[in-house]
Amino acid sequence: MRYCYYNAHPRRLHVDDCTKRAIALATGMDYRDVARGLNAHKRLTGAKIFYEKENPRSYVENVLGFARQVVPKRKDGTRISVASFAAAHPQGRYILSVKGHWTCLVDGVLYDTWNCGALDLYSYYEITRFQRRNIEREAHFRVKEQDGTWAVTVIDGNGASATKYLDKRAADAYIAELYDRGMYNWDEIGDWI
């Protein structure tokens, strides 16, 4: 499982906002819209704070319309880990619930402010309707092959880019390094929808 640091908080603060971050990234909604939605939904659920257990669940299920999938325990009483779930689900968008925390998995990559891959998975939501977002504008790349030469272009999101022209073996190694650094391949994800 790959992990990519991601903090959607508008001021990049580390606060108890994992539900907002996970919902915003998985659905493509703006972080502030999710925050407003969760806070408004408190009036219906009676929650005192937006992240009380039932408020985010009710918001995702009743407002956004996604069904919660509970992960059953195995015969030996243990649960699968987030990393095991990620390995079994290399494609798709998921909001994952572990003990006291929500996180987001997009195409096998865990996006969060910390790597919770070793934790037990309790439940998840598969997000089937979403708006694609440029997850990290400064951290994506494109690959183009022509006549046995691979052009790997890293784009910073501000109009600047750098291209390396490599043979297949060197390009594969460079692409693996870019993935390890948390970047993603724009051509695999596609344009915004």
- Main sheet: strands, sense, barrel: 6 strands, mixed
Estimated share of beta-strand residues: 25-35%
Gyration radius over CA: 18 Å
- The count of DSSP E runs of length 2 or more, i.e. the number of strands, is 10
Please identify the oligomeric state.
single chain
Distance between the amino and carboxyl termini: 26 Å
- Helix fraction bin: 25-40%
> What would you call the structural class?
alpha+beta
Give average pLDDT, whole number: 86
Which regions contain 5 or more consecutive residues with pLDDT less than 50?
A: none
Topology as a string of helices (H) and strands (E): EHHHEHEEEEEEEHEH
**Number of continuous helical runs:** 6
The rough form would be described as globular
In what order do the strands lie side by side in the largest sheet?
1-5-4-3-6-2
Q: How would you describe this structure to a colleague?
A:
- A hairpin with a 5-residue loop joins β8 and β9.
- α2 packs across α3.
- A 6-stranded mixed sheet has the order 1-5-4-3-6-2. Strands 9-8-7-10 form a 4-stranded mixed sheet.
- With 193 residues, it is α+β, with helices and mostly antiparallel strands.
- 31% of the residues lie in helices and 25% in strands.
- It has 6 helices and 10 strands, in the order βαααβαβββββββαβα.
